[in-house]
Specification:
This protein has helices at 2-17, 39-46, 55-59; strands at residues 20-26, 30-33, 63-64, 67-68, 80-84, 87-93, 101-106, 109-114, 121-125, 134-142, 146-158. By secondary structure, it is α+β, with helices and mostly antiparallel strands. The protein has one domain (21-158). The strands form 3 sheets. Strands 1, 2, 9, 10 and 11 form a 5-stranded antiparallel beta sheet that branches. It has a 4-stranded antiparallel beta sheet with strand order 5-6-7-8, with no helix packed on it. Strands 3-4 form a two-stranded antiparallel sheet. The longest helix is centred in the first third of the chain and has 16 residues, at 2-17. The radius of gyration is 20 Å and the shape is elongated. The two termini are 29 Å apart.
Length: 160
């Protein structure tokens, strides 16, 4: 009986430890406001990248001179792989009709990254040194005379 219980506990412990872990970190909101601007001022402000200071994004080449480089969030939405040494996690982008979705798979283990916006842009960048590169998303929303820029970093790890 003890032998069966030991085998069961060992199996249960092994199953719990498998998998992909996703840590979601939302960065502080950045905003460009267009209130009280002349047409000429609006045109010059509209083309500027939003202000943002983040050491990780800067080291990954996503921030330069205190501005978020929006053009870097240009992944085409096709399938891709995240690699860490000899380990690989496959990623498949879901339909862009209702919400942004990426399905991460390693072996028979899957995890989803889902946002509520179909307009989410993303890129793959090494924001947090070591491990897999991160998936970095950008949502731009126009709200009351300005654009809000929401950046989220998804750190991908495996349970040991």
């Amino acid at each position: 009986m003890n032998k069966i219980l030991s085998i069961f506990l060992l199996f249960a412990f092994a199953c719990v430890r498998e998998g992909i872990v996703i840590t979601k970190t939302k960065l502080p909101l950045s905003r460009k406001t267009y209130a009280d601007l002349s047409e000429k001022q609006y045109d010059s402000v509209k083309v500027l990248d939003p202000e943002m200071e983040d050491v990780g994004l800067k080291k990954a080449g996503l921030v330069k001179h205190g501005r978020l480089l929006v053009e870097k969030f240009n992944h085409n939405g096709g399938d891709f792989e995240l690699q860490n040494n000899d380990e690989t996690i496959s990623a498949k982008c879901g339909s862009r009709n209702e919400a942004f979705r990426i399905i991460l798979t390693q072996g028979d283990i899957s995890k989803d990254i889902i946002t509520n916006s179909p307009n989410t842009q993303f890129c793959i960048a090494d924001v947090i040194p070591g491990g897999y590169p991160e998936i970095v998303t950008l949502d731009i929303n126009y709200i009351v005379n300005g654009d809000n820029y929401e950046v989220t970093v998804y750190e991908i790890e495996e349970n040991p």
